[in-house]
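sorry to bug you again but im stuck and you know this stuff better than me. theres a chain ive been looking at and ive put its sequence and its fold in token form underneath. id like you to explain what the token line says about the fold, in plain words if possible. anything you notice is useful, everything is just below.
___
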Amino acid sequence: MKIIQSFWTLPSKKNSHDDNFGRKNGGWLNEKYHAMSWAMSCLKFKQFYKEVEIYVDSDGSDWLINKVGLPYSNVHTISVETGFNPSLWALAKLTALSTQNFPFLHADGDVYIWKPFPIKFLSSKLFSQNIEFDITGNLSGNIYIETLKLLVENRVHLPVFFKEPIESFKKTGRIDAYNMGIVGGQNSIFFKQYVNELHKFLDQNKEIKLTGRDMNFVEQFFFYCYSKYHNFNVDVLFEEENVAGTNSYSSMIQFNLIPISKTYVHVIGLAKKSQIICSQLSSRLHYEFPQIHKHILSLYKEKKSYGIARDSTHVDKNNFQPVFSCSKAILNDMGIEYPPGSYEDLFDIIEDLLVKTNKNRSILSLNDIYQFEKFHYLTTKISNKINLKANDTTLLNALYNSSIPEFLNYKFALNINSVAIASVNFKYPEHILISELNKIMTRKNNTQLENDIVLLTLSSPNNLKAEVINDWRMLLLYFEDNPVSGCDLVQYLRDERLNYNLKKDNLQSFVLSFLTTFSVHFNYLKLVTA
């Protein structure tokens, strides 16, 4: 089976980054992650299929082949007809589909695989990823329904094969379509006819202002209607999905479960703008293809910025910020002297005070502020030695090379290099930058006594933030004192009868997702190997 891909650069260059459906940078946060996505997709398909070809315009060829350096087996330079709205980002894909004379599979540049597709699936006359549907009253808004309304309001002459699906929508409030993240089959003639009809529809309605949001309707609803009208069965790889549901396609972007229980990722729509997803894509590319990851990083070097210290006499050379200035200010207010020497002496004085002094408002404030500042100081001291955001290779090796039972037997502990759990006495803003601790300290008399549990995370050497632990993240407390295995956690959940809306059969899957999310995804847990 030949694999083909396609890319048209005009949407990336012309559309606004603020347009969530415009495909600026392919819909990704920036061009760097767009490049990483194409690299990941191309290289993963190349692992399982000999022929991986791309249909691309000249600018796209210069970028993907000459600049990024992707090893496609064949590059077809195409030109998309001028005059089309750049919001119609799938036009290159339509060109690629229409030129095929033999069986093929087209994969979007945000699809990655970790095993080949079933032979029976590839032998189908027609196939696609899955059926997706839009229903009236979707909490995240409507996609297909809004486009249909636009066409009806403009009195567009709709193709005859739209009639039956539209009548069904009027009765049920539901519109079906095929997600074409992957699409293809043995019947290449069908695609020529489908694309010809679609172009005819666009030519007849050039006066209608279509946007990127309408492209799903144009491409995927059209495919659904045309195949149904001609009684062509379309095999699918996955179950149907609500295109605008609350957790739409969440199971298809679980990087943290690859390849232990997931072998297919399609980063659909707005997921591309998630920093977590982008970071996880980068981590996967770095783990599997370190050379091209390094090359892409060299193409998109980021400038570093540092905070400006207000008190130059108390500046840590590692992070360009005042060190323990807030804790020292509280000590000054209390009339407590402290030596100008090592921080270890300061630690002893403060920790002795916290244990032996009666709990007044100043002591409670010192307890909270000191925890923030000490955690920040300790983590920034090691930030030059390790990359806190990088996934541990041992952890990823365990994830890649273990069965689910084997992985659940590994022990995990709280990763003190990037996270700490603190019991604090006052209610603070949920996101706290180290540079704002002075403001928080001066407001302490107006801060409500709360006694919250707070999770502290380090996102960069200059950035400390605090998040209140709730819901299933409360289970992180279980890892604070001693290493715990996934099997231990499963047993704990059974013994304590904690209700996370789980059936007993789903406990293992829940724990697997928990461990991989908070180790691979967030780096809050570390694998204990000794």
Observations:
- DSSP finds 19 helices and 18 strands in the chain.
- The first helix runs from residue 10 to 14.
- The CA atoms of residues 61 and 375 lie 48 Å apart.
- Residues 304-321, 384-390 have pLDDT under 50 and may be disordered.
